[in-house]
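anyone seen this seq b4? input:
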Amino acid sequence: MFFTLFTVLSIAATARYASGQISDGVIKIGVLNDEYGPYATLAGPGSRVAALMAVEDFGAAAKGLKVEFVFGDHQNNVDVGAKIARQWYDTEKVDVVVDVPTSPVTLAINRITREKGKALLVSSAGTTALTGRACSPNSIHWTYDNWALAHSAGKALVRSGANTWFFLTVDDAFGQDLEREVERVVRENGGTVLGKVRHPFSTSDFSSFLLQALATQANIIGLANTGTDATNAIEQGTRLGIMQRGQHFASLLMFLTDVHRVGLNKAQGLMLSEPFYWDLNDQTRAWSARFARRHWGAMPTMAQAGVYSAVLHYLKAVEALKSDDGTAVIAKMKALPTDDPLFGKGTVRPDGRKVHPMYLFEVKKPSESHGPWDLYKLRATIPASEAFRPIEQSECALAKK
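predicted toks r here
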């Protein structure tokens, strides 16, 4: 079964909503992601928890809003994801779809959402096309994107003195694009690329590639890959003594749960950029502790935090409009300033890009950690004005208006 229905709040809507423009008197939210596959821990059930917490913290019941949820597993398959989205929109009367890891699935659902006049809030996918050539008046890209990851890590590291690089890149469009973006940033900021090597997707033995990186004595080994390719490279690099020789890995796309799985013994010294970490401040710590109590003790990833933040802002826009019309709500979300305990104050640009700071983190040594999820230390903060591709460089038609 691809989806199930779960009613989190089911109360009679007050007159101001029942007589207004809330379709069927119900706001229906669809959380769509990978429930059992490789992205289940970074999003999956944790994104359900985050969405439920957003509805509760917004106080929907007290405000007379009836909210229902459906949850779906797209199995990282475009056809499956598209089928679920169409059924949700056409039959289940879903108003907004949230989360949606894997860029091909996201782009397919983005097209369907625009066609149906609904709303899409993307937290887990990284493709910059959502705010570029595929931008839509019905979608917002909330948490991060590949440009932000590449530029946050590349610029901050070079400015900190890590100005010689070697790239270990998966030989596909994703890896090549990521490598190209970071290389450009490194060179623009005075750094040097000493070498690069391409590897096949799902490589098990990285030893020959890592020996090439060692020979260059580059400060940073940039991992333009993700998933098991990235974790395999880190684990094998640890055995070869990469860190002990003064070199550091910089992962260009890695989540808290990936680092937790690899462990500090192997991941220590890894550099990575994210827009959220549970231990950033008192507000993120308090919210994350509540989240962990409902999610088997696991702290939230940036993707799960993004789901909470996006759903909370969506509900604010629905309340302000007294409508759940997808196109109108997305426009209202862009007009309203964003503010929540996880990302602080921010904005949503006309091209659909949610803007907030990014952070460069270094993975702690085991001796520096005080608990199983105490994994990062902050190295640099990239302000919102620098964290994402400038809107004047956007290919999105909405940015030109």
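Confidence is low (pLDDT under 50) at residues 1-19. Residues 3-144+280-356 form a domain with the Rossmann fold fold (CATH 3.40.50.2300). kinda curious what u guys think
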